[in-house]
Amino acid sequence: MTSTGTGGHIGIAIASGMLKGVFGHGVLSAFEERGLRARVYGTASSSVLSGGLAAVGRARETGVAYWHKAAAGAAGTGMSQVVLGSIEEYGPTLRAGLFRAGAPAFLLATSKVTDPEAAEVTQGPGAKELGRQLLRNIFTGDRGWVEKNLATTVFSSQPDTAGEGPKLTPENFDAVSYASTRMLHAWAVPAEVDGEAYVDASYTCACPAREVAATGVSVLIAIGADPFPVFRDIYASEEIVDGSTIDGATVHVIKPDEDLKTLGVDYAAATPEGLTSAYDWGLAAGHRFLDAQAGLLGQAGKPAS
């Protein structure tokens, strides 16, 4: 990759990946160590916490500890309780930091259920089987149900900066954060925002790169959780290509060189040792990126106006 230079604004879009999101948290921690602060952070599903911590300057402080707790919970109480527990623990810090004057813009992607009958299914006992079918559809590329019943909905802490999407506020932050993570096959607790049904962002927007680029940044860093291409959604409908341009923003992609499964980290299960190693991989990748892109550090610390 060639240096982009200075003079613009940086946006960061962090892809979902469940427990594999620990890699992205490591990358963001390296950025924090080096003083790189984005103007806009775009998050989806499991990246909400790591992206939020980065936006408030607490990614490195939290480090891998959150992921150890999340993995233990996933093996015990279930994913809904893991996420609800993390929101209870970290929500006060994120709400205090994300909505203060001068904070970076924070985008939180979700999938809104647009059809009333589909909403009833997602909120009821049929949700798990539907979720399993949607996962099977990944292998065939069948997006029929998603296209018919879901709409990407990106909440923004600064709507004037990030377009006409709904506003993310301290009052709805917890509900939107949970909704963004709700994969139907494994999350037992339904998700609602203002009385309307939502499901995991990953079905429609696993990496909100386009939404971040649309805010007017000149550099877009997309962070993935797997060694294969970073896609917009779990159905691989659109690749986010390193070196490309989206809405005038130059795209840089950071992702693991190898599958984190080699370390013992998969989407829904991980060993403590594997999580620590995957976080360290992310740290190293973040530092390597900034060593190669030293000009970006001149753009650090420029929050949205």
Give the biggest beta sheet.
Answer: 9 strands, mixed
Number of helical regions = 12
Tell me the structural class: alpha/beta
How many E strands? 11
CA distance, first residue to last residue: 29 Å
Percentage of residues in DSSP E strands: 15-25%
Average residue pLDDT: 92
Low-confidence stretches: 1-7, 301-305
Q: Gyration radius, to the nearest Å?
A: 18 Å
Helical fraction: 25-40%
Described by the principal axes of the CA atoms, the overall outline is globular
Secondary-structure element order, as H and E? EHEHHHHEHHHEHHEEHEEEEEH
Note down, in words, how this protein is organized.
Residues 1-7 and 301-305 have low confidence and may be disordered. The strands form two sheets. Strands 1, 2, 3, 4, 5, 6, 7, 10 and 11 form a nine-stranded mixed β-sheet that branches. Strands 8-9 form a two-stranded antiparallel ribbon. Helix 1 (22-34) runs parallel beside helix 2 (47-55) and helix 4 (65-74) runs antiparallel to helix 5 (79-98). It is 40% helix and 16% strand. The radius of gyration is 18 Å and the shape is globular. It has helices at 22-34, 47-55, 59-62, 65-74, 79-98, 116-123, 127-138, 144-149, 159-162, 173-181, 209-213, 272-292, and strands at 10-14, 40-44, 105-113, 150-156, 192-193, 196-199, 219-223, 230-231, 239-240, 245-246, 249-254. It has a domain at 12-109 and 167-179 and 207-299.
